[in-house]
């Protein structure tokens, strides 16, 4: 999975830059941005996530991060414009990605970058549908995945332009991946069965390692995007 530093390295923020970190969760990316000399506004739609983030900030005595409970689709900063926006491994959970992108474009300074790190769908739609199926089985908040071309169009249609991207492989220990979810044993078995019953094309693409009817490891694709306000 994307480490926060990858987003910071692509962002290349100037010292003192004011960065908005969307869907910050417990603030990992926000903390990496502060270490790079940024001032950060970190938001998340989950009050529980922001509460945990604030606990961590208090423990670390960090004051350069301001937090708020806020959906990406409903950004409100009283006219404040940011030097950059980051969003790591979250957009596939958003209720309305086009609306979120329009909101992001509205709070970015001219030519300021948006950095997105997320899972991605391959061009083969059948493979993409399988990835979305297991994503939704594991997490009810999982919404959808996009191809590279989808991302280019989504960004351009909503006030942004992709200027760079890179793809990488992410090999997951499926036992740990499932252990980090709140699923019951029966729900986990549904995911194992989905892998077992999938086509050979899916198994080959995901490099699925299945032992005794259980998925133990698979590999999917991630995308790292740099866009600017169009």
Descriptive notes:
Helices cover 39% and strands 27% of the residues. It has a domain at 4-122 and 143-169 and 221-229: Rossmann fold, CATH 3.40.50. The model has no long low-confidence stretch (mean pLDDT 96). The longest helix is centred in the N-terminal third of the chain and has 14 residues, at 47-60. Helix 1 crosses helix 2 (28-35). It has 230 residues and is α/β, with parallel strands linked by helices.
Annotate the secondary structure layout.
Elements: H1 4-11, E1 18-22, H2 28-35, E2 39-44, H3 47-60, E3 65-69, E4 84-88, H4 97-107, E5 113-119, H5 125-138, H6 148-157, E6 160-173, H7 174-179, H8 185-197, H9 200-205, E7 209-211, E8 214-229
Parallel strand pairs: 1-2, 1-4, 2-3, 4-5
Antiparallel strand pairs: 5-8, 6-8, 7-8
CATH architecture of the domain at 4-122 and 143-169 and 221-229: 3-Layer(aba) Sandwich
Please provide the ordered H/E string of secondary-structure elements. Answer: HEHEHEEHEHHEHHHEE
Q: Give the overall average pLDDT.
A: 96
How many H/I helical runs? 9
CATH class membership of the domain at 4-122 and 143-169 and 221-229: Alpha Beta
Beta fraction: 25-35%
Span from first to last CA? 29 Å
Shape by Cα distribution:
globular
Sheet/helix structural class: alpha/beta
Q: What is the number of beta strands? A: 8
Return Rg in Å: 18 Å
Q: For the record, what is the CATH homologous superfamily label of the domain at 4-122 and 143-169 and 221-229?
A: Vaccinia Virus protein VP39
Per the CATH scheme, the topology name of the domain at 4-122 and 143-169 and 221-229 is Rossmann fold
Largest beta-sheet details: 8 strands, mixed
Identify low-pLDDT runs: none
Helix content: 25-40%
What oligomeric arrangement do these chains adopt? single chain
């Amino acid at each position: 999975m994307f480490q926060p530093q990858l987003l910071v390295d692509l962002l290349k923020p100037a010292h003192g830059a004011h960065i908005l970190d969307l869907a910050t969760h417990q603030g990992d990316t926000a903390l990496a941005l502060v270490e790079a000399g940024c001032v950060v506004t970190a938001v998340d739609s989950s009050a529980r996530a922001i509460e945990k983030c604030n606990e961590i900030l208090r423990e670390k005595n960090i004051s350069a991060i301001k937090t708020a409970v806020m959906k990406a689709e409903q950004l409100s900063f009283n006219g404040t414009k940011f030097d950059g926006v980051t969003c790591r491994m979250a957009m596939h959970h958003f209720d309305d990605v086009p609306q979120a992108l329009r909101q992001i474009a509205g709070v970015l300074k001219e030519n300021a970058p948006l950095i997105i790190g997320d899972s991605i769908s391959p061009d083969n739609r059948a493979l993409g549908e399988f990835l979305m199926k297991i994503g939704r089985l594991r997490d009810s908040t999982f919404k959808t995945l996009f191809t590279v071309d989808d991302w280019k169009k989504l960004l351009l249609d909503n006030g942004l332009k992709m200027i760079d991207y890179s793809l990488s492989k992410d090999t997951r220990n499926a036992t740990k991946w499932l252990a980090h979810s709140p699923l019951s044993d029966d729900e986990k078995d549904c995911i194992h069965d989905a892998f077992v019953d999938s086509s050979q094309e899916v198994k080959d693409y995901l490099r699925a390692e299945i032992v005794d009817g259980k998925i133990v490891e698979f590999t999917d694709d991630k995308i790292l995007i740099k866009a600017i306000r169009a």
